[in-house]
Amino acid sequence: MTKVIALTGGIGSGKTTVSDILKKQHIPIIDTDIIARQVVEPGSFGLTQVVERFGSHYLNTDGSLNRTLLRSKIFNNAEAKKELERILHPLIQEETLKQLENYKQQLPPYIVIAIPLLIENIKNKTTRPGYIDEIWVVDCPEEQQIKRASKRDQSNRDLIKKIIAQQASRKERLSYADHVINNNGSLKVLENQIQTLLTD
Ligand code: ATP
């Protein structure tokens, strides 16, 4: 039986790093960040909906979505954020389930769905999505998240701190974890931990 894992964690915690390690083990990865971009590609139903709701000034001159502008619009506007989610979430879910069904045909032992904002999306609901068997949370201390994310993005610490404050708290995220992947050490330690998790 295939086990479907939802992989999540805060900004800079190491989700991509963990996904890359899992990919090397030939585990299929469904990346909802990639899907979130695909559903608003030029010519898509999603983009048409976004433009209908928010206006054509959210388009770049080449017809693609101006993400930076839209991100700043929803950053401090909870209602706009909700409306955007109402448009995008069903489309992202539909594509995720399509990929999941396709991968299941290959009968792999695991399929991983990387969902960065999983906890933010399920915390007000009574149940988690039925297609998820386990939640794996990538975790490290906040200071480590700030250091790693600011170094990677060449962005300042304050911005990362603001994003962390908007995300689910570490404690809340951990309360949903079926497994915690502790990413407070070296890459080697991380790899060994994942290996153990997969052979358990
Ligand atoms: P985001 O939510 O911002 O997309 P993420 O959770 O996917 O971030 P990564 O991109 O995997 O996090 O990691 C953030 C940065 O920290 C990257 O530059 C990555 O190479 C580095 N990093 C992650 N884990 C480790 C580790 N154990 N040792 C050293 N560097 C690490």
What's the structural blueprint in terms of helices and strands?
Blueprint: E1 3-9, H1 15-24, E2 29-31, H2 32-38, H3 45-54, H4 67-75, H5 78-104, E3 110-114, H6 118-122, E4 134-139, H7 142-153, H8 157-166, H9 170-175, E5 179-182, H10 187-199
Adenosine-5'-triphosphate binds at residues 9, 11-17, 116, 148-149, 152, 183, 186-187, 190.
InterPro entries: Depp_CoAkinase (IPR001977), P-loop_NTPase (IPR027417)
Protein name: Dephospho-CoA kinase
EC number: 2.7.1.24
Fraction in helix: 40-55%
CATH architecture tag of the largest domain: 3-Layer(aba) Sandwich
* Main sheet record: 5 strands, parallel
End-to-end span in angstroms?
A: 15 Å
Oligomer: single chain
**Which overall shape is indicated by the principal axes computed on the Cα atoms?**
globular
Structural class: alpha/beta
In this entry the ligands are: adenosine-5'-triphosphate
Main CATH class of the largest domain: Alpha Beta
Poorly predicted ranges: none
Number of strands: 5
CATH topology of the largest domain: Rossmann fold
Averaging pLDDT over every residue, what do you get? Answer: 95
Largest beta sheet: what is the strand line-up? 2-3-1-4-5
How many domain modules? 2
Instruction: State the CATH superfamily name of the largest domain.
Output: P-loop containing nucleotide triphosphate hydrolases
Pathway: Cofactor biosynthesis; coenzyme A biosynthesis; CoA from (R)-pantothenate: step 5/5
Organism: Thiomicrorhabdus lithotrophica
Protein name: Dephospho-CoA kinase
Main location: cytoplasm
